[in-house]
Amino acid sequence: MASLGKKRAGSSGDEGIVARVTRTVSDSAIMNTAKNAANDAAYVAKRLAKSTGKAAWIAGTTFLILVVPLIIEMDREQQFNELELQQQSLLGAPPAPINK
């Protein structure tokens, strides 16, 4: 019984049905086309992620360099205006209208 199993596994001409079907499917043109399409999709996704990362880096650094100092300066201006109004009210002067 053990010799029968060895004979089947060792002979190259006596291939099982599952092995034949698997080989036929993996060697088909449809499978090759699907593999190529998957490779192309992965390449495009990788390039898109890379360029999106670069764009996010540029947008982030631009925001930090240009917009954050502007926000800080506007906050200082608002605090200065509030302080000025508070001092005017303490001195008894009529409050000046706030221009927006």
Automatic annotation (TrEMBL):
Domain of life of the source: Eukaryota
GO annotations of cellular component type: mitochondrial outer membrane
UniProt keyword annotations, A-Z: Membrane, Mitochondrion, Mitochondrion outer membrane, Protein transport, Receptor, Translocation, Transmembrane, Transmembrane helix, Transport
Residue intervals passing through the bilayer: 55-72
Similarity section: Belongs to the Tom22 family.
Transmembrane among keywords: yes
Name assigned to this protein: Uncharacterized protein
InterPro entries: Tom22, Tom22_pln
Membrane-topology descriptor: Single-pass membrane protein
UniProt xrefs under Pfam families: Tom22
Compartment(s) of residence: Mitochondrion outer membrane
One of the GO biological process terms: intracellular protein transport
